[in-house]
């Protein structure tokens, strides 16, 4: 939505310090799914001149706190409230190939094999 509105800077607030720190890149994302979300945030953030992801405690964010309580009570969604249930992650999990670190020596040998007249 921010991109469609032609905004140049975005500030995101979240009530999970762990998520805010991992998605902003301040903390490492050891979980593959969180690492995938971090990469997706980096891609989206590339459309803006600047972006921030900040942790806002629930005591300072009454709206998020109220929504989380509604969600845990499993009551009907109030009027004028949008609900989007995600049954699957919205990002693609990395495969073993994505996570593999390329071996530079093997790449050089492969290149020399393809172009045999090269000399090293």
From TrEMBL:
Task: Please give the Gene Ontology molecular function terms for this protein.
Answer: nucleic acid binding; RNA-DNA hybrid ribonuclease activity
Q: Which SUPFAM superfamilies match?
A: Ribonuclease H-like
Q: Which InterPro entries match?
A: RNaseH-like_sf, RNaseH_domain, RNaseH_sf
Name of the molecule in the record: RNase H type-1 domain-containing protein
Per the record, a Pfam family?
RVT_3
Positions of the RNase H type-1 domain: 2-69
Classification via PANTHER family: RIBONUCLEASE H (PTHR48475), RNASE H TYPE-1 DOMAIN-CONTAINING PROTEIN (PTHR48475:SF1)
């Amino acid at each position: 939505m921010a991109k469609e509105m032609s905004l140049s800077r975005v500030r995101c607030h979240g009530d999970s310090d762990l998520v805010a720190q991992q998605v902003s890149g301040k903390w490492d994302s050891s979980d593959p799914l969180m690492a995938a979300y971090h990469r997706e945030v980096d891609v989206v953030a590339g459309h803006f001149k600047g972006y921030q992801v900040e942790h806002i405690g629930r005591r300072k964010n009454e709206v998020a706190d109220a929504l989380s309580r509604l969600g845990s009570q499993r009551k009907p969604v109030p009027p004028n409230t949008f609900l989007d249930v995600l049954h699957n992650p919205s990002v693609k999990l990395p495969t073993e190939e994505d996570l593999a670190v390329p071996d530079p020596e093997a790449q050089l040998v492969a290149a020399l094999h393809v172009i045999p007249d090269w000399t090293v």
